[in-house]
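help with this:

***
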Amino acid sequence: MNGGDREAGRTARPKRADARRNEGVLLDAAAAVFVASGVEAPIRDIAAKAGVGTATIYRHFPTRADLIIAVYRHQVEALAEAGPALLAAGPTPYAALARWIDLFVDFLVTKHGLAAVLQSDDACFDPLHAYFLERLVPVCTRLLDAAAGAGEIRPDLDAYELMRGVGGLCAGAGNNPRYDARRLVGMLVAGLRRTE
């Protein structure tokens, strides 16, 4: 067995907790820089925000596309994990849903900086939309079901439709400083309440 065969036979070891934490710090820094300066921001800006050298970023993410995909997936995972945590800790299912939608708005605003790249012709970005739906629609569905089960919202709500509505409200701002997507989304979420 040559060295390549031995490598192929090994299973990937999970990252240590400190390595996962460090990667999370790096991805959070990259997301913040992308929002402020766009996805073409210099890698040195991301490195400075994360408190690491540029070589560390290139070691983890050899290309800018690798970094963009990792940031997107990191944010989707954080949002997916937030749903059950909010439901467990929230005072009511509706409160958990409202807080999750608020986090979803944050995600969409952050993602807006990535939108042009994600909609590019680069095939490496194609699976991200399906990944987004696969991870987040079930979380939103669970929150809606819990709030409906508690009698706090109407029972006929669809997670995909709600998420599309929130996305549409967030995308509508353009460059209009008077457009407050968060306020509009808040009105949408308030409108989910069950009326007697």
Confidence is low (pLDDT under 50) at residues 1-12.
